[in-house]
Structure formats: structure tokens, C-alpha cells
Design goal:
396 residues; alpha+beta; Rossmann fold; OB fold (Dihydrolipoamide Acetyltransferase, E2P); 6-stranded mixed sheet; 6-stranded antiparallel sheet; 20 strands; binds adenosine-5'-triphosphate; binds magnesium ion
């Protein structure tokens, strides 16, 4: 069992809307796990359930071998950064950061009673011995100051520690909210789009800082975002959630390169993956037809069980080739942004658009005729209706 084990979690709002549908997930200790999904897919709901701010209809939540499904939030030892974070308006930034360190009484009590249940005797500083509260009471004040300063430095908010939340910018407030979670010694840190209010430059530097800090401290983070760049660059592993279901879990590059279904394929990638109608070729069950062209698939897979069904060929823009044979098309758009060239082609037979992205300088202009085909190693074929994977070149 993982350090965090979510088992068959389901959650319905108002008796009918299924926000989480049988979600199971294992997260390892020290892992940076990113939960990625479109708006309304259930990301916030899932981490609010872990934090105890929502109750689940069914399923189990286990963190560090503690079954916490029915515990109140204060007794779960999880720290959370909210999507709509709120700071205490009458406290300074310093006191906002220090607050969670002072308010841990109930959790300590719960952990004590659990420890007693296992036959351990209460001695002074039992929290200290259990590794729950690494601060000895005599050290508390000094330690709080040190930790506030360390977190403030990391988040570049040292110079605003004396101000109140009303006197700082939105981006600074968001960093204070992040700091308030990081300052605690929690079993898991739940972060709901914690960088969304930062400008592009600060977001990218804070991402790196956060990732470095997480590594250095060895803490476990479940990080929610709908930004695929964040998911691909920050996550040790990621999970893609859609309509309350966890549809794929894996290392970011594996999920990007080997999507299990058409939703994941289409959700990751910018520009998005090309999706072209296709079907099993009438001439050969090891080939597919798209745009009037029969593409013989490498390894000659037998696709006869999919004959006659509507399928989709998915090709990443970086995997589109203009070759000696392929579907006929006409170049309709050529643009360069820095070193990257974007070329759009409309397939003659089906009028579908295919986009190619390359750093190569191609002698191509709008109006040219080309033959379009995927790189041999990178075609994916899905069922159009249920979006399941039929065949993937990378999985051979
Ligand atoms: N308290 C609630 N009562 C009823 N429905 C809710 C409630 N909270 C969320 N929902 C619904 O549950 C679904 C999942 O919401 P959730 O907030 O988890 O999505 P999300 O993935 O975090 O989206 P976003 O990226 O926009 O923050 C949505 O359709 C939402 O409307
Ligand atoms: Mg949300």
C-alpha cells in the first residue's frame, strides 16, 4: 500500500451529481504528484475530500497507515493551500505564517491517543518522540521565528512580513498562503492551483523553487492544476482526471507519449494532438485509411476486429511528416515563432486540418502540395465513440 492510499472514492453532490466516480490512487512518500484535469473535473473535490473538508459517499482514505476517512480536518495532519485562499486580514504576514504552528492542539491530542492505543506510554514530549511535533516546547518560540524566516525567504516575501494582507499584492498574498501550508510539518501537502495568481515570470521561478524545496525536504505533495506545463514539468507522476474519473496515472512523459485514451491524448499537448478520422483499410487489416491514404502500420498488427468502426488517428504535431507517400494535402498556413515553425495542411479528400511543428527550416510555402503521414514510431489509433486505444506505435 502506498504512503497515501485512496481506495474507490465516490462523492455525489446534492444526491445526483457524481463529482468523484470510484477514484483509486496510490501516492508514494516524498512524491510530487500532480492532478491534472479540465475545469469541473473534480480536482478540488478530490483534495477537499482528502483534507476532510468534504465527506465521501464511499471509499477509504489512508495516509501514512492511518485510516482518516471519517476524521475531522484538524486531526488528519494534512496541510492545504486553497484555490480561493483566505488570509487572516487583521494579522500581519508574519503572524499569518506563524499561525498554523500555534494551532495544532487537537491534532496532537488525536495522535497521542492513537499512540496510546498501540500501548505506548505518555511521556513528556511524546509528539517529539513520535516525530509528530519535532519542536520541543522550550524551543517553540525560537523555532517559529526561524521557520517563518526560512519560508519567507524561499517565497521572497521577507520584506513584507510586517504588512497586513490588505497591503500586499494578489501574487504576494498567494505566496503567503503557500507559505502558511509549507511551514507546517504535515504528512501531506495538498495544493489547489497555488500559483494561478502569479505573473508568468514569477510563476515559472516559484515552480522551480517549490519543486526544489519539495525535493530537499522530502515532503509529499498532491498538486492540482489545469495547466499541462505545470503537470509535465513539476510532477514525479501525474494523474489525469475527467468527469470525476481518474483516467490515467503515470510519469508525465509516459502519459504524454502513450495516452490510454483519446481524452488524455487531446488534453495534453500544445498545439493539441491532430485527430483525423480513419478506419481499418478495406484492402488490408494491418493498415488504416485516412485522408484517402492507406497507412501500413509498423509490425503489421491485425485490426480486423475493428473493421467498419469509426476510428481516430492521433498524431502529435511534432510527429507529422511530409513524405514521399501519404495523404494528399495543401499547405494553408506557415508561421515561425522564434526557432519553431508551425505549418497547417488541409487534407484534400476530407478537408481535415493537420498541424505540423518543427524546428527544421523547411522550404515550404502556403499553397504547396504535400503528402502527410505520421512518423513511423508515433501513430496512435483510438475508437472514435468510446475513445479507447486500439493501437499505439509506442506500445509495440
Ligand atoms: N458544493 C457543491 N455543490 C454542488 N456541486 C458542486 C459543489 N462543488 C463542486 N461542485 C461540482 O462538482 C464538479 C467538480 O467540481 P470541482 O470544484 O471539484 O472541479 P475542479 O476540477 O476543481 O474545477 P476548476 O478547475 O474549475 O477548479 C463541478 O461540476 C462542480 O460544479
Ligand atoms: Mg478547482
Amino acid at each position: 500500500m502506498g504512503y497515501i492510499s485512496l481506495q474507490n472514492l465516490s462523492k455525489t453532490y446534492g444526491n445526483k451529481f457524481k463529482a468523484l466516480d470510484n477514484v483509486s490512487l496510490e501516492v508514494e512518500q516524498g512524491e510530487f504528484f500532480v492532478l491534472l484535469g479540465p475545469s469541473g473535473s473534480g480536482k478540488t473535490t478530490l483534495i477537499r475530500c482528502i483534507a476532510g473538508l468534504e465527506t465521501v459517499d464511499s471509499g477509504k482514505i489512508i495516509v501514512k497507515n492511518r485510516l482518516i476517512t471519517d476524521y475531522p480536518p484538524g486531526e488528519r495532519n494534512v496541510a492545504m493551500v486553497f484555490q480561493n485562499y483566505a488570509l487572516y486580514p487583521f494579522l500581519t504576514v508574519y503572524d499569518n505564517l506563524a499561525f498554523p504552528l500555534k494551532a495544532r492542539g487537537r491534532l496532537r491530542k488525536r495522535l497521542w491517543s492513537e499512540a496510546l492505543g498501540q500501548g505506548k506510554a505518555p511521556t513528556t514530549g511524546i509528539g517529539y518522540q513520535l516525530g509528530i511535533n519535532p519542536i520541543k516546547p522550550t524551543e517553540v518560540k525560537e523555532n517559529i521565528r526561524e521557520r517563518v524566516n526560512r519560508v519567507a525567504e524561499m517565497l521572497q516575501i521577507t520584506d513584507i512580513l510586517d504588512r497586513k494582507p490588505g497591503q500586499i499584492s494578489g501574487g504576494q498574498r498567494q505566496r503567503v498562503a503557500l507559505g502558511r501550508a509549507l511551514i507546517r510539518e504535515a504528512d501531506v501537502y495538498l495544493m489547489d492551483e497555488p500559483l494561478s495568481n502569479l505573473d508568468a515570470k514569477l510563476r515559472s521561478s516559484t515552480r522551480i523553487e517549490l519543486k526544489n524545496l519539495q525535493k530537499k525536504l522530502g515532503i509529499t505533495i498532491i498538486y492540482v492544476t489545469h495547466d499541462q506545463i505545470e503537470a509535465l514539468t513539476m510532477g514525479d507522476r501525474m494523474g489525469v482526471i475527467n468527469k470525476g474519473q481518474l483516467v490515467q496515472v503515470g510519469k508525465p512523459l509516459d502519459v504524454y507519449n502513450m495516452p490510454d485514451n483519446l481524452f488524455v491524448a487531446g488534453f495534453l499537448g500544445d498545439p493539441p494532438i491532430n485527430q483525423v478520422d480513419c478506419s481499418v483499410s478495406e484492402r488490408s487489416s494491418t493498415a488504416i485509411s485516412f485522408g484517402g491514404y492507406d497507412l501500413e502500420l509498423p509490425g503489421k498488427p491485425d485490426l480486423s476486429s475493428h473493421s467498419g468502426k469509426p476510428l481516430k488517428l492521433a498524431i502529435r504535431p511534432e510527429d507529422v511528416e511530409f513524405a514521399d507517400s501519404g495523404a494528399k494535402g495543401t499547405v494553408t498556413f506557415v508561421r515561425s515563432i522564434g526557432r519553431i515553425n508551425y505549418i497547417s495542411v488541409v487534407l484534400s479528400e476530407t478537408e481535415e486540418m493537420v498541424t505540423k511543428v518543427t524546428t527544421e527550416q523547411l522550404a515550404i510555402s502556403e499553397g504547396d502540395s504535400v503528402l502527410v503521414t505520421p512518423k513511423a514510431s508515433s501513430a496512435d489509433v483510438f475508437e472514435r465513440d468510446n475513445e479507447t486505444l486500439v493501437w499505439s506505435a509506442k506500445k509495440q
